[in-house]
Design a protein that fits this description.
The complex is a heterotrimer of chains A (305), B (240) and C (105).
Chain A: H1 18-25, E1 32-34, E2 59-66, E3 69-76, H2 87-103, E4 107-111, H3 121-140, E5 145-149, E6 155-156, H4 158-163, E7 168-172, E8 177-178, H5 182-189, H6 199-206, H7 208-213, E9 219-221, H8 225-236, H9 244-261, H10 267-273, H11 287-297
Parallel strand pairs in A: 3-4, 4-5, 5-7, 6-8, 7-9
Antiparallel strand pairs in A: 1-2, 2-3
Chain B: H1 3-11, E1 15-20, E2 23-29, E3 35-41, E4 45-47, H2 49-65, E5 71-75, E6 77-80, H3 84-88, H4 91-107, E7 112-116, E8 119-121, H5 122-127, E9 134-137, E10 142-144, H6 148-155, H7 159-166, H8 176-181, E11 187-188, H9 195-204, H10 212-219, H11 225-239
Parallel strand pairs in B: 3-5, 4-6, 5-7, 7-9, 8-10, 9-11
Antiparallel strand pairs in B: 1-2, 2-3
Helix pairs in contact in B: 1-9, 2-4
Chain C: E1 2-9, E2 20-24, E3 31-37, E4 43-50, H1 56-69, E5 75-81, H2 86-100
Parallel strand pairs in C: 4-5
Antiparallel strand pairs in C: 1-4, 2-3, 3-5
Classes of the chains: A alpha/beta (305), B alpha/beta (240), C alpha+beta (105).
Chain lengths: 305, 240, 105
Amino acid sequence: MSVPIPSPQHRSWYEAGARQRIQALSDPGSFVEFIGPERREQSPHLPLFDLPRQFDDGIAVGAARIAGSSVLIAAQEGRFMGGAFGEVHGAKLTGLLRAATALKRDVVIAFDTGGVRLQEANAGELAIAEIMRALIEARQAGVRIVGLLGGRAGCYGGGSLIAGCCSTLVISEQGRLSVTGPEVIETNKGVEEFDSRDRALVWRTMGGKHRYLIGGVDAYVDDDAGAFRDATVAALARPARFDADAIEAEQKRLEHRLDRLGTRHDGRDVWTALGIADADAIPDMPTDRFLAEAANHRESADAAR
Amino acid sequence: MLLDDILASLFGSDHGVGREAGILAGRATLADGTALHVMGFVGGTELGIDQAITLAGLVLGIARSEDGAPILFLVDSSSQRMARRDELLGLSEYLAHLAKALLLAEQAGHRTIGLLYGGSAAGAFIATALACHTLVALPGAHPEVMDLPSMARVTKLPLSTLQQKAEATPVFAPGLDNLAQTGAITEVWDPEQSLGAQLMAMLETPVTGDVRGRLGKERGGRPKAADIAAEVTALAIAHG
Amino acid sequence: METLRFDLDAPKAAGGTRTLALVGVVASGNLEVLIERGGPAERCIIEVATAAHGFKALWDAVTADFVSRRAAGGLRISINDGGARPDTVSLRLAQGVRLIEEPEE
């Protein structure tokens, strides 16, 4: 069974909690949670820092059906410790991905993470590595791993590396995907390099529209739970392929990106280089027009991720 | 240990490992005739998109080669490059790609052994050292997720508080001992003994699944991870 | 962390048949409330983990008010507090009970 929670007030993916996202994706009543909050498998490390814990350590994992297909599913709670990976949190996802190989079962991961939880940094870092290994092994077994990006914590740090191992990535405008966050770039290299308070700059550099245009993700959707579900269903129908050819194709794709775009300094310049006539119009462009524009100009990562 | 001394202790004077712009590449042979591919970092290099694509290209070349030779990945890096250009152009994809290449090479029969002899931090650590099947280290290596002063700034805790808490647990602070206790480092090698002999002994051991959770539990650094992961796997399989 | 435990008189049994409900999230100014059925009948047990020390009197008041207003007999309630104000605590407790009383599908 799965612990009942209040129904979502509205359909925004950004505003939704972890279990609300799972409910929005899953066929009604199909979600079964593994090691749910009633098990109270909390962080063994947060009490040292006098920090409150969450009964599920900030992630819900389990099995569900989506449009009739059985999947394994995970959703991070971005509002708890910024969705960051701790020992238990990470281990739940590691275990789920190992089951995916055993069962040859596709996986859907709703990311919402600032990266590794500093209070448990070494455990979090190891979890990322273990997750990536388990994920790649699952893909080698023919499993599809669909990553959904659109939560308030973004998808940063080790989370972004895990995302980079997924077979398909879906993002909304609110989604951000980056290894280092804006504030840390600024701290390390100065405000001239990156003004972290310039929100438009942040989104041009690491936001959903930019990532979609350069082929960093595969699908772009509205901030709507139904849109994420539809994109997930579509992603689960894509061919599952992870082999030497796919990685060689990715090598070429990423080399080509450097050749084509490597001297561009700003997202705006990148979009212009891609052939978009009015790059300044992209941030405010509504979804339909943006997708039409993108269809003509974006870089694709099909069969090369 | 300095890189030249490490290479000499591994291979004697006869090796073909070159270096350029902080990246190592080449081949070498151990005393028992085992041929190896050698690659990695020297000089605390940052791992940006340019380094990542170069390293991945080297790895994919090895993966294509079908020679079954192990890869020794030497690590003395800093962290991932924290710059606008690298993030703009999708650093997360480049780092993930490098990790995938290493895993692919391993699957293609090239056992991957990371040897941490200097620094390694954050995203660079994950995409290189931690993407190898086995990670060993030399004393004096200094792996970290984040240095304590930066952690103090981000967590808004005094540095002295973090230092004090670091004495109570290996789970967050930088350092070889802490990363060994949590299961990241399988062995710390003895610089006084032949590194070549220690590598040959390691290559004799069977290739296993991911044992780092078990190591973390045995050594006390990660008391919960192995059991939680195993239980989720079992529950998922039982659910069917 | 401070842990508090309240074992309160709750003569009227909580409605419904669900055995489990969860509301809230552990974020600043918020809390999570896990409600389980199967505690002693006519009692309501509430356990609180909080980083804010010294507020037992407030928790006393909020939990006493809760059992005086809602049928909570037989419930075990576990709270992880992220520094929530009393009115937020009351809200989550009420939401939690409403949820556990919801008819099962």
